[in-house]
Design a protein that fits this description.
One of its GO terms (molecular function) is undecaprenyl-phosphate glucose phosphotransferase activity. Belongs to the bacterial sugar transferase family. With 450 residues, the chain is an alpha/beta fold. Helices cover 53% and strands 12% of the residues. It has 14 helices and ten strands. A six-stranded mixed β-sheet has the order 2-1-3-4-6-5. The protein has a two-stranded antiparallel sheet with strand order 7-8. The chain has a two-stranded parallel ribbon with strand order 9-10. Strand 7 and strand 8 form a beta hairpin. Helix 2 packs antiparallel against helix 3, helix 3 packs antiparallel against helix 4 and helix 8 runs antiparallel to helix 10.
């Protein structure tokens, strides 16, 4: 999987989008005639530039991406953008000077390319000179492919990988694998590269389980046999093939932007349209029935296991075990007002402020209180995988009946299964479907809503 946790790309890419669109629109204003300096045309070139870029992967530049691949995408962007602009002026406007359009597109792409390569090489230089933005990696296995990858990491520090150790698995494989796992945790390793030729299916499963449960990145060096799987991703470090086993759609920048825009628009609609008048009304009823604040704040684990303050309407009497014991059926701590707002899921609405702040998403795996997260991480296999994306106010598991109190291990196991399915198969349509199902279930009433 491609992970960019805590890396520069989370900030560089939005900056690149903004810079490129500014360049395109400013040059259009200065280089094209007044007939094209209209609001609709600027909207057109903005949207068309982004759509083309997302489809050809113009902004999908990673530390191992070759310069030739960047140049190829620049040429694709140039010719497609030029053709679409000619199509626009040919269909909507009488425009008799095609050279002006060619000049505009050419200068735009040249300036954007210069900025793109400046960022690309500046980051490489930054890694070498200052030692920043490095990913700590280990390699597991033997053979020529392992030696090639070792050479690649050691000879190319500008790519930003720091090889900490190679485990050759020459003697006692079971013991060496255990040492490998301990080394990863002790030295805060980011990525593990395994040679498939040196691992059995059981060994591979051990690595998959270990990395899933500890939020580490796992990649494989293929052997000379054909490797088949439904969700494989191939990348190349120089000319060395690397395999990732899990594809997470929300790792892609375009999908992140789409989901974030959906979150912002939807949360603003709820905050302005509902919470603006509901908060004062509920505040009166909550405070009349019991002493304490209107809102309940609780530490929960979010994206990449980071803690954040999750907000809810207070539905219980003030108590010392709120952060330790989950609410159960007929829980004496729940107030009369609390019973109603929990039954209708109104108590969750303040979490739209968490969504607006960026700690949560409208749809995603439900976050657990910190003490429960630590407990389930020890007991339930792959529980930590759900922290690869932002937690949500609602999720696929909740629409399938796995919400509320965890009565048996089956409840949390199925919740994790649905969460993993969601993060591997995300789409905007799936988010919309889950939102509608959540609203429908809230109106209908759910057995575990207490």
């Amino acid at each position: 999987m491609r992970r960019k946790t805590g890396r520069y790309s989370g900030y560089i890419r939005p900056f690149s989008y903004l810079l490129d669109l500014i360049i395109v629109n400013i040059l259009a204003n200065f280089l094209l005639p007044e007939t094209l300096n209209i609001f609709s045309y600027h909207i057109f070139i903005t949207i068309s530039w982004l759509v083309i870029a997302w489809n050809i992967g113009f902004y999908e530049v990673y530390r191992y991406t070759k310069v030739i691949d960047i140049l190829a995408n620049i040429l694709k962007q140039y010719f497609i953008f030029l053709i679409i602009n000619f199509a626009f002026i040919g269909f909507y406007l009488k425009f008799s000077e095609p050279s002006m359009m060619i000049q505009f597109v050419t200068i735009s792409v040249l300036l954007i390319s210069m900025a793109k390569f400046f960022i690309y090489f500046a980051l490489r230089r930054f890694r070498v000179v200052f030692g920043g933005n490095f990913r700590r990696v280990i390699i597991v296995g033997n053979g020529k492919s392992v030696e090639q990858l070792e050479d690649f990491f050691n000879e190319n520090p500008d790519y930003g990988y720091k090889l900490e150790h190679t485990f050759n698995l020459n003697c006692n494989k079971k013991e060496e694998l255990e040492q490998c796992f301990q080394f990863v945790m002790k030295n805060k390793i980011d990525e593990i590269y395994c040679s498939l030729a040196d691992l059995s299916n059981t060994d591979i499963n051990k690595f998959v389980d270990f990395t899933d449960n500890n939020l580490k990145i796992l990649k494989f060096l293929p052997d000379n046999k054909e490797v088949l799987a439904r969700n494989l991703i191939f990348d190349y470090y120089d000319y060395i093939p690397i395999i990732s086993l899990r594809n997470i759609p929300l790792d892609e920048t375009a999908n992140k932007i789409i989901k974030r825009l959906f979150d912002i628009v939807f949360s603003l609609l709820i905050i302005v349209g509902i919470l603006s008048w509901l908060i004062p009304i509920l505040a009166v009823f909550i405070r009349l029935e019991s002493k304490g604040g209107v809102f309940f704040r609780q530490k929960r684990n979010g994206l990449n296991y980071k803690e954040f303050n999750c907000y809810k309407f207070r539905s219980m009497e003030i108590n010392d075990i709120a952060d330790l014991h989950q609410v159960s059926k007929n829980d004496p701590r729940i107030t009369k007002v609390g019973k109603f707002i929990r039954k209708t899921s109104i108590d969750e609405l303040p979490q739209f402020f968490n969504v607006l702040l960026g700690d949560m998403s409208v749809v995603g795996p439900r976050p657990h209180m910190v003490s429960h997260t630590e407990m389930y991480a020890r007991r339930i296999d792959k529980f930590m995988v759900r922290h690869f994306i932002k937690p949500g106010i609602t999720g696929l598991a909740q629409t399938k009946g796995f919400r509320g109190e965890v009565e048996t291990d089956k409840d949390i196991i199925y919740r994790v299964k649905f969460d993993i399915f969601y993060l591997e198969n995300w789409s905007l349509l799936l988010d919309i479907k889950i939102v509608f199902l959540t609203i429908y279930n809230a109106i209908k009433g759910e057995e575990k809503a207490y």
